[in-house]
Amino acid sequence: MTENNEPIDVSGYSFEKAVAELESIVARLERGDVALDESIAIYERGEALKKHCEALLTAAENRIEKIRLDRAGKPQGVEPLDGE
């Protein structure tokens, strides 16, 4: 949430754009050259970006699961995406 309690809208961001901005936020916070109020604001934005990336990854995983089903809807050797 922002100062005026409006939600942070990152829903239109691609996964790549969201990750790039999130990396930029992490770098700024790690440098420690940001004022406390701004740190809190960009941290909140980072949280929104993280949640958006997680949702996009979950959607991608679900699409892959659907692709790996046969015409009858039965799994065709479904394996975890991370190879475990």
TrEMBL record:
Keywords for the protein's UniProt record, in alphabetical order: Cytoplasm, Exonuclease, Hydrolase, Nuclease
Report the SUPFAM superfamilies cross-referenced here: XseB-like
Where is this gene product found? Cytoplasm
This entry's Enzyme Commission designation comes to: 3.1.11.6
Concerning PANTHER family, the annotation shows: EXODEOXYRIBONUCLEASE 7 SMALL SUBUNIT
HAMAP family attached to this UniProt entry: Exonuc_7_S
Q: Which NCBIfam families match?
A: PRK00977.1-3, xseB
Query: What is this protein's name?
Result: Exodeoxyribonuclease 7 small subunit
Which organism was this protein described from? Neorhizobium petrolearium
The lineage is: Bacteria, Pseudomonadati, Pseudomonadota, Alphaproteobacteria, Hyphomicrobiales
Encoding gene (name)? xseB
